[in-house]
Amino acid sequence: MINEQLVETTVGIDFSGDYAQISIFDEEANPISMSLIKNEQKFLIPSVIFIEETDGIWDMGDEALARNQAYEGVLIRNIPKTAKEKIRFEVYDDVFDNIRLVSFYMKKLLEFVKINADLKSIDNIVVSIAGSEREE
User: Fold this and answer.
1) What is the pTM of this model?
2) CA proximity to 52, closest of 30, 34, 67
3) What is the spatial distance between Cα 58 and Cα 131, in angstroms, rounded to a whole number?
4) pLDDT digits (tens, 9 = 90+) for 34-45
């Protein structure tokens, strides 16, 4: 028997080098991919972070890719692999570690869930991590 409370409060995140994807449970306790935009089919979130040069604003996913085209800054690709291989980052005047990089990305993913899913709360997060074998 599946615990209904567990089903109603669990979020799954598949975190790979190219994209992340979020899953929640439906009414029958089946995992389903969650669209980033309600009532649309937008499931994949690019695993990238963009840090803008002029104001130091951080963005992730599609927004990061768009801002990278419009503004000067640093685009960090393949977040899982980058965080595994590099512990300390220096971008302009900011110095940060791999934990800050991953936590920023995950926080933004969970903001998508809060906006677009009908969950009472998020009490459980299950993350699977896979690096990309593709060369960047």
Assistant:
1) 0.85
2) 67
3) 22
4) 987 777 888 999
